[in-house]
Amino acid sequence: MRLGQILEHLRESGGVVTLDAAGRVRCAGNAAVMSEAVVQVLMAREEEVRAYLQEERAATLAGTTTRSHGWCARCGRVVWEGMGAERLPVGDLVCGDCLGPWDIEAGSVPVDGSGDTTRLEGSR
Ligand SMILES: [Zn+2]
């Protein structure tokens, strides 16, 4: 089985394989799917997994004109503008799907339409 197929399979079952801010491979999500054995297999091929995820991100960004805020700190997916993402007080970006009422209560800030996004032109 190729790596892409393995990751696709894990994700369909609720597993999360992503890169953290430091570029390390992170495994999370459904614990029944992301068992110790599965994580061990992935980490044994960490270099390969990292290269795959980086390529996947680049391809995702290249295939759209929609602007992105970055990556969700929880699920690792691309966070698009207008999708209800918020930034937590600790600085993590969380997509609308992963955001919980407790995050909003804790003081997260919406990143859409508040002038928080980086302007590409006309900033002066
Ligand atoms: Zn998310």
Give a structural overview.
The protein contains four helices and seven strands. The protein is of the alpha+beta class. A hairpin with a 5-residue loop joins strand 1 and strand 2 (25-29). The protein has helices at 3-12, 36-44, 46-62, 101-105, and strands at residues 15-19, 25-29, 68-71, 78-80, 86-87, 93-94, 109-110. Helix content is 33%, strand content 19%. 14% of the residues are buried. Zinc ion binds at residues 72, 74-75, 77, 94-95, 97-98.
The best one-word shape is globular
Distance between the termini: 52 Å
For the record, the count of structural domains works out to: 2
Radius of gyration, whole Å:
16 Å
**Class derived from helix and strand content:** alpha+beta
Order of adjacent strands in the largest pleated sheet: 6-5-7
- Unreliable parts: 114-124
Bound molecules: zinc ion
Fraction of residues in helices?
Answer: 25-40%
Count of separate DSSP helical elements: 4
Instruction: Please tell me the overall pLDDT.
Output: 85
Characterize the biggest β-sheet. 3 strands, antiparallel
Query: What is the strand content?
Result: 15-25%
Order of helices and strands: HEEHHEEEEHE
How many distinct beta strands?
7
